[in-house]
Design a protein that fits this description.
204 residues, alpha/beta, TIM Barrel, two-stranded antiparallel ribbon, 8 helices, 9 strands
Amino acid sequence: MTTIPSFTLNDGNQMPAFGFGTFQIPADGSTKAAVATALRLGYRHIDTAAAYFNEREVGQAIAESGIPRDQIWVTSKLWLQDYGFEAARTGIDTSLQKLGLDYIDLYLLHQPYGDVPGAWRALEAGQQAGKIRSIGISNVTPRLWAKFVPDFDVRPAVNQVEFNPYFQQQPLRALMASTQTVLEAWAPLGQGNPELFQEPVIQR
């Protein structure tokens, strides 16, 4: 099997450079089947979220895969109803319970609204307790970066945002460089944009 390249995060952890996302896959057996297929085909990074309502099936597929746990990178995300320090601590534990895991490799604040500082402190505490290996943010724009990130004690390892050849996020990437935060793309292929696949540079 081809070795998947990885990124070194600012906390020293190695994250596989591409992964399988489970957004909009229903929890009716479809998520479990899709993740099982992805793992069988060589994916070693699986992305889910509390708001996807399919963490349990992701965990089932991982448990039944026969692949050692330390060879699979699992990302999940905290949704807005669990923001605030105490609520976020409960949200982390709920994700762990649904996934059936002892730890989550990367846990993100899914959206930067509400009590972001309290939720971030809970992620920091979860990392210190060994429940989370790396912590990060998602959908944080340059304006929201300036509002929240300078006050964080721990630098985000990742900011997961929309990113593709037509939307390259250059101002945001310049900000993130100061903290060595890795940009992780959602919709890296433009959500299947046919024009993107006709670009000569992409075809080459």
